[in-house]
Design goal:
Number of helices: 11
Bound molecules: guanosine-5'-diphosphate, magnesium ion
Helix content: 25-40%
Largest sheet: 9 strands, mixed
Number of domains: 1
CATH architecture: 3-Layer(aba) Sandwich
Order of helices and strands: EHEHEEHHEHHHEHHEHEEH
Length: about 280
């Protein structure tokens, strides 16, 4: 039976996709969540490697795929609803290049077209916010215009993120004359622990990335913003976190739901999509 839903997890390099996947996988394995695996997942290597590091209390090295690789997980909730979770890995910094060069692997294009839900990971902590229209005099943009190359590399992190969404919309041949119902959009603010905030996820996004916020708000009728800390705290690649090693990685990590409620079940963003609770 074809799954009712295909959920695509997208994000630039270094936002925490692999560690989220590893923690998600562990939750499924120990059944500490509302979901379970309903078949054989493909291409788990990156996640199982990360998971074995986490079991020792370490984070894993970033090992970008050199080509497009995707891991597909068939999952089910307790009501029997099925979905397919798709983790595309486009190799290192490739997503940035995708935006700059507008070149998309055909396999990814197909995924984008078919997905019912997009889950977009953004790591606010690594965003440079200083160099966009909201904070820089217009004249500096005029100066950058003088060389096309320079202008391209001057895109702010925020602008590049909007551009990436625009590109996905273009690929999926979606038109923005009306706010979109499908695909639904979930924004996961990853590495939430780094932000050290008590704000609601959507309020924080609106305050920190106003241009992205107005773009997604005006173009999606179903938009959810959730905070995600897959690891709960930073881990080193070399020095093991003893507590992690003793208690197990499944004891760490949380999500901050749209209403500010905190939960240890990091699979909830996906569960909510399957239950159509948005
Ligand atoms: N503090 C903190 N760091 C995290 C978290 N999740 C991932 N990281 C770190 O972020 C970096 C990038 O993570 P990774 O999963 O490789 O990102 P990917 O390139 O999107 O797959 C790694 O150094 C992780 O240790 C988190 O929830 N909190
Ligand atoms: Mg990765």
């Amino acid at each position: 039976m074809a799954p009712q839903q295909t959920i695509l997890l997208v994000g630039e390099s270094n936002v925490g996709k692999t560690h989220y996947g590893a923690q998600f996988l562990k939750r499924l394995m120990v059944k500490a969540c509302a979901l379970r695996m309903s078949g054989a997942p493909t291409n788990l290597e990156a996640f199982t490697t990360a998971l074995s590091c986490l079991t020792e209390g370490k984070s894993t090295d970033h090992t970008p795929a050199s080509t497009y690789v995707e891991s597909v997980w068939p999952i089910k909730d307790e009501a029997g609803r099925e979905a397919e979770l798709v983790w595309p890995d486009y190799g290192g910094e490739q997503v940035r290049h995708l935006v700059m060069q507008r070149r998309i692997p055909p396999a990814w294009r197909e995924r984008v077209v078919k997905a019912s839900d997009w889950v977009f990971l953004i790591r606010l902590h690594t965003f440079r916010s200083e160099d966009d229209l909201f904070s820089r005099p217009l004249r500096s943009f005029a100066a950058a215009e003088s060389g096309a190359e320079a202008a391209a590399s001057e895109l702010s992190d925020q602008a590049r993120t909007v551009e990436l969404l625009q590109m996905l919309l273009y690929l999926a041949q979606l038109h923005l004359d009306q706010p979109l119902r499908t695909p639904r959009l979930t924004i996961l603010l990853s590495c939430w622990d780094e932000l050290d905030t008590e704000e609601l996820p959507a309020d924080l996004l609106a305050a920190r990335l106003p241009m992205l916020w107005s773009f997604v708000r005006s173009n999606w009728s179903s938009l959810t913003v959730i905070g995600l800390s897959a690891l709960e705290r930073p881990l080193s690649k070399t020095d093991a976190d003893q507590e992690y090693a003793i208690r197990g990685p499944e004891e760490f990590g949380y999500v901050v739901l749209p209403n500010g409620e905190k939960s240890m079940d990091i699979t909830l963003p996906i569960y909510r999509l399957m239950a159509r609770e948005t």
